[in-house]
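Box S2. Input/output pair 1.
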Amino acid sequence: MDGKRRLDNNLLAFIWRYSAGQQLLLLLLTAASFPILYVSLEIPKFIINGVIQGHDFPRHVLGMEIGQTAFLWLLCLAFLACVLANGIIKMQLSIYRGIVGERLIRRLRFELIAHLLRFPLQRFHSVSQGEVVSMVTAEAEPLTGTMGDAFAQPLFQLGQMLTIIVFLFVQSPWLGLAGIALIPLQAYLIPVMQREVNRMHHQRVAYVRQLSEKIGESISGAGDLRINGGAPRRLAEFGHLLGDLFFIRMDIFKRKFLIKFVNNFISQLTPFFFFAVGGYLVIIGQLSAGALIAAIAAARDIADPWRELLLYWNSAQEASSRYEHIVVQFSPPGMLPVALAQGRPAEIPHLDGPLRLDGVSITDAAGIVLLDQIELEIPSGAMVAIQSPDAAVRQALAEVISRSRPPAAGKVEIAGHDLAGLHQSVLAARIGVATSTPYIFRSSIAANIQMPLRVAPNGAEGDGANPPPVAVLEAERAGNDFEPLDRDWLDFGASGLDDEKAIRDWWLKIIETMGTSNFLLDRALDCYLEPDRHAGLAEQVIELRAAVAGSLKAAELAERVRRFDENVFNPGLSVGENLLFAVRRRPSSGGLPEFGSVFVQVVEQLDIAGPLIDFSADLTSALVRAFGEVGPRHPLLRRLTHIGPDSFERLRAIDTRRASGRAFDAADRAILLALPFAITADDLGSAFPASLEAALMEARQKHGAMLRAVAGDAFQPIESGAFNHNLTLLDNLLSGTLTGAQIDQRRVRGIAQEALIESGLAGEFMLLIGETDTGLAGANLSPVARERIGFARAVIRRPDVLILDHALASQSPAEREAMRTKLRALLPASTMIFLEPDFPQREAFDLVIEIRGGRIVGSSARLQPLPAQKLSSITADLQSKFDALSAVQEFRGLKRGQIELLAYASRWISVREDEYLFRAGDETDGAYVAVSGTAELRWPGAGPELEPIDTITPGRLIGDLSVVLDEDRIIDMVAVSDFTGLRIGKSELLDIIESDITVALLLLRTVGRHLHGVAEERAEMNAGEGGTAAMMAPRPRGETLQ
């Protein structure tokens, strides 16, 4: 980039600096049009005087004898040629002016964005995002016309005027004077009146910015406005703002059309003088009629360039004022110098020396001192803890060390380099900063994490796809960066990583440091492989199937996999997928699948159509019953089905019509036939009717191949020995779907993970997470995921200085302690600065500093599924769950719709006598409701001869506290008779708690009763001799505490 680039303070200076050659070319083309214009004015006069009224014919022209009629046609054709040539020149001038204007506005916007990226961070606290976006886009847009017209337009219009005026004076000095008599009046009066209009336009723009800011603020805080009753006041504020805008616009209209009236009136006075003066001159014989007619025509032509000149003057004044205002807004004090931001230095030095803060002071926008004369030296490679309860202080310190905020006083040095004089590329390569709330850009996770390494294309010329030459040329003309985006942008130099494999290996080490390897590998099991990018991985997965199957058999878990069999119904697939023995292709829209009319007509002709529609009607009633009150956007509906809000409302309407006794029409039948393709038996938590399964298998054998052919690309057939890209990695590894208790499913997933680790593929699959689309500002990711991305982004550059401001805050203290130990091993030579509100354990740090008041104040569960319950109706099964949950004391305060929702989320479980539902140390998989039978809660390892902690009888809710606390089980739960219950999954229960305050409140009361009960029992124990130890110790059954 050209380091001399800048935003001139004056619009015309900016235009001339960056388009002088183009403007000169425009001026030459403009000047070339004037002789043609003059000839086009002379020809009409000659036609009237010399041809129509002439008598000397025939005439000799270029040695040719031409009669009167032929001469007339010749001059008319000449006039037409002049008009055509003048029009073409005008057209080309307009096109070229437009191109020049677009180049300049492109340059201006690029410069504004470049300035924006050099803003001091505190500037963004005083200007809203909406204002900045508006200035770069909407407010800069009107400058385009003025930039292209800056010099050529006034010259063109002025030249046309002068040509016409010269023509008038040639005909008669009096006509010339009549033509220009009122121009001085207009030249003075119109700009003066327009200046006030321009001033009001600026007022209007300021109010529009305020309106944009308040609209954006209201969108971001819509929930708080509603909850806190702020909507009336906010609407009143909008009313006042819109009122101010109305009155300004009204004044603008009044003045604008007054100017138009005055200008038009003065312009119409000119014909008055022509008719009066010109007619008099013709009467007295001093002017011919042809000359007068030509003069009147020319006088009409003079109005257009004069009007255009006035318009240019007005728009130029407004544009110049607009430009100057934008430049002021984009040139705040404290900006990073352009020499330190643009380009890239030849050398990126390491910052592996001591870090010194010399008298550093920082204040916030309100003038409050955050850092006051901080004197601090941190040895190279030290591990430093800086403690401050004030988040603003910690943020300020992190920003000043990374030069994101310049100090108000003092300076920062690293390895002898003054931070203020280092190029930004050096800081970006050598200093990493991670916070608990990083910003995530809309792209993939990998692109966000690798951002510090994507600093320049490193491919040689010709590598990758090069942009078209015309695009490169236009970018150079507009002063834009236009590096090819399709080349490899990974920088292997500054980071010390040799190639892309080294970067991937380093990323995996960072994942291990964060302690998320198991999490990512487990999540990878639920990912999909893309055929165009993961063909090699897919082949390796197929090769692993035999090993996984052998491990499952050895662990007696083979029956937990429902293998894909062309002759067997698979509850893990939807009804429609079972019918076709094929999987619906991704990506799906999130609603009911829409098939062509041909496919629907074919299915309707089959015997299976009747059972499918009856099944869908029953399922629709169950869904409407469960989600009718909470609405179709409830997270549980999105989690358990592929039915979107719009599809749910269509199903609700069908159910309403069905309840009123109306028959299904063709559209209803099409929707009901689509529903079975969107939901599985596993989604419902109950088996489908046996008759439906048998009918589906019979229809598959008869019509499966035909239906797959009719469906076309909407489904991918399930083929043994082939990888199905519309099934998850786990489904492909197992060649089937999972069933059974959560504990057994976790064991199966563990075996799959071990197979990937042993094959050396674990890293490849963990990094599949990098292809995930983040959404705008990381909207597709959880806060924890965004936090981890920010951490990895800071570490992946292998920084010399790493600043962690409350990073990975979601982790437990023990996890964070382990992270620091691993991080030290990962970056043994880096200086690490940890900023936290408190450090309970300080032994691992080389230096501990406490800052208060801106100054340093101190340094130094076994479950079995319910045997296949072939309920004849899904609604009946939902009713059974509803009845069981209604008997639970904790749920008696809930509305019917809320219990319906819990029933939909629950799953039947059944264990035999002496079997465990869960053991101490098991991961919490949900809460349990006893329906029949009895179970006991026992201390870990306690046998039946010891007194149980509690006896669980029908109607009891167990395990809800572990779900809320997100802790593993600490006691055992064992059935003492055949036991049947309901399990509400952990994720489903948390979804309901987070979206329904009533459920959350009831569970909070339950937790309170738990704690109150423990407190009372402990008080009783303390009153005796045994104390707490006696209360906690297992004791023989029947023995009581004295």
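Box S3. Input/output pair 2.
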Amino acid sequence: MGECTKFGEEDLEHAIIEDFKARGYEHVKGETIQRDRREVILFNDLQTYLRHRYPDITDGEIRVAATMFRVSDRGDYVSNRETLQRIREGYSIKREDMKTTLWINLLDFQHPENNIFKIVNQLEIQGPKNDRRPDAIVYVNGIPLVVLEFKSAIREDATIYSAYQQLNIRYIRDIPELFIYNAFTVISDGVNSKAGTVFTDYPDYYSWNRSEAKDPSSDGVNSLRTLIDGMFRKERLLAIIRDFIYFPDDSGSNEKILCRYPQFFAATELLDNIGPHMKPKGDGKGGTYFGTTGCGKSFTMLFLTRLLMRSKEMRNPTIILITDREDLDNQLSKQFIRSRRFLGDENVLSMDTGTNLRNKLKDVASGGVYLSTIQKFNEEGSMLSDRSNIIIISDEAHRSQLNMEQADKIIDGKRKHTVGFARILHDSFPNATYVGFSGTPIDETMEVFGDIVDEYTMAESEKDRITSKIVYEGRAAKVALAEDQMAAIEEYYKDSLDRGANEYQVEKSKKDLSKLDIIIGNEGRLEKVSDDFIAHYEARVAEGATVAGKAMFVCANRRIAYDFYQMLKRKRPEWFEVREADRPPKEGEEKAEPIEMVKLVATRGSNDPADLFELCGDSAYRSNLQTQFKKIESNFKIAIVVDMWLTGFDVPFLDAMYLDKPIQKHSLIQAISRVNRIYEGKEYGLIVDYLGIKKELDLALNKYARGGIGRGTYPESGEFAKIVKETLSALDGRFHGFDSSGYYSDDSSKQIDCLGRAMEFVQQDKEFEHWFMSTVRKLKTAYNNCVYSDDITADERSRIYFYCGVRSMIAKIISGNAPDTAQMNRKVREMLEKAIQSDEVSQIGIIIDNIETDRIDLLSDEYLEKLESIPGSNTKFKLLERLTRMAIGNLRKINKLKADSFSERFNKIVQKYNDRHMGAEELRQIINSMTDDVVEMLNSELVSLIRSIDKEEKEADALGLTRQEKAFYDILAHTIEIYQFEFDTAKLPDMARDLKTCTDEVCSVLDWSSKEDVKDGLRMKIAMVMQKHGFPPIYLNGVYDEVFKQMENYKRYSE
């Protein structure tokens, strides 16, 4: 069998470069570019472009143009924002005659073929303190617009996250000049590929999974090619840079948003659709965008508005954004008002009253962006404008925004003609074009706004991890008082399917709902619901199945919500004590207020009893409740709601909604979507159903999810209980023969001993260890979604705790990560805390912490004695392995030759460890009689190797050499050893010092490693040193090669 071929970072880099070349990019190796290493602009390309774009431009004007667009003295963020603004919008320079100006556009957006596109790899950049060499940079007209960083897909330790850290920590720290011009960054390991910015947190880096709007989404290996094709076709890259990178007007937050692919395609598809549908030639229906709730539609509106405002065909349009609720209008208004510069219009206004709205819009001749609720169009009046270049964008395009009807009603004994809000809006702007955004479009949506132009489904959003998956748990049977109650609820939903929307049917629906509220609010039923909720909520918290303990309970009406609130207060009075936050706030954020754990969130009614009226509070009070609930650390954990917060309310760490209200169709999808936001550690959002509306949910999903999970159904908690049982069975099978009885005793020392033995058992085999760690993670994820299931027995729960405890301890050994006690059962948490405090495990923890922080002399005899005293041969080996890797890694930075030698010995020892048994079956049969002796022998070999490294570290001092000089000493000694010739080794220290001096001289030359004349000079200097000390010249080539490798190695690590 031939030698195994590995696919590393260089191979990935080469493959990506080939993809760029196929799209018309010129590939240039960084080392071939003649430039000052501190300079990141390719001035020759910029000059070539400017000469072609402006034939009469002079050399002096080119120099002025090249310096004026750089803003480099206002901090990383502001400099990047201002420089990109000039790159996108252009700027003027004074001509040399000082009488005229010349407008400079650094990119030709209209004619991509006029630009110079290059992909440059391994360009060395000199920073203020350290040098760096990014894997690849995309240049357009000599401007470094995109930086790409790659990691190996086959090295487990080289993750895409490490590529993120390389860019967003080390590069921006060490070579900030490069990121003044940066539009966005790309990270990839060949399987996972994502784009973001250096001001973007890692969770907000996203894949680009479509090349074209109508393409199916891709993943895995194909996603890299799709990202390159979808983002780096020349015209696409220019479009993204010009219109789809967002900065707010203020600079306080360092906010920079790169569009996600559904936002790009939605905005561009809508723009293309609006033009043909504009009146007088079109029908005024600009189209409907169907984007699942939580997918970022507000930014899609912002990008679309920018495109419309900049479109020549639109002739400076007026944009009106309409919502149907004040809180949604406030959210959208805040975003748009801080985006005036991005939109290119200072006239971006939120209208506070209907009168102001009508007065303002009546006087507008062109331009402007206005935000309002539909309800402000509440008076019939004259036409406000008959212009056709008015675009009206409706957010959540259903409900009142579709009410085009007129009717005569008897009010207070008098006949009154009523007109729907939407009808008034359309009459006010009869020639406008109407565009609808909705996560739940209905037939009437398309009738008012036109056909669906683009869509982004719930399934796609969940697959892309833009939104979280949702789990359904039905608990109606647990709280129903009688069969007839369940039947009444089912009858309500059955009847609702046949209902239309005329006023008589709506009136009947209200009466039916009123009857249903009597059943739902029955005191006996509500007592059972409150008991079940308390037990269910407390179980989730105790099991660590929730990120922050945030939950929303949805009641049918305000009276029922008040009764439920009072029941909880009676049963759990401690929940209603005002308490401080359970953790400090994030840096830069205000501290959460002391507050109760449970709050009722509802508007006041004029006929409310005094207690309810006081409890609901005014608008300022409710606004503050919203602020406190959105703080993860706040003691406010449970929000009891009726209608408020069920749409347009985003709390990413909210992971449970308890439904006890009849909700249907699009309103149901909107409500459950409150728990679908992404947050670290949140695998799913949970919906607990107390009414038995699973069938209604399935119908809504089939209509609005468009291929959601299970083709219109969510996974149920019962399905996760099956996964738990299956996974437990698999784990039990692999642990056959292992005595875990000590864990289940009440003796803490036996429990700790059992955990230690289980760690050893798992680590006997690398393949088994990997399987165990991933399987227990799967077990815990499934268990989190069925913690209160009756299908999980007490014995099964105990076994779950055992396996999770073992996994957490192994994670501590392998990676130094502390056990994740926040998401752990309370019993296991307490046991692990005892275990960590015990002498044996505490010793391990101290050693790990020291390895991680390098606080003491890790290679000392005293330290190695501590390591050798650790119980458990496999645990000891893992710690010694980590220590050895670190020691060799530190040595490699200074002395490549010796590090390579030690690394070879180390790899052989690790290979023996991995190959120390004959297979899992035989291992299980002989585990009690064999492997400890083998592993202890390997531990001794590792200790011996560590002592050799320590000796190597100290040998430089004995020779009177620095560690860098010792590297050259070893090259000379190695040459003597290989070729077996006589030489006075007493001369080697002086010779090593001379080699170090001549290499220092060479390294002071810019780009020395890529200049042949400099390398020839180095060879000559080495020959002179050899001649001076009588070293045989026949070995010049060998010495030169090793010296050159050492110089490159030292240079690489010094960066």
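Caption for Box S3: The domain at 261-456 is CATH 3.40.50.300 (Rossmann fold). The first strand starts at residue 26 and ends at 29.
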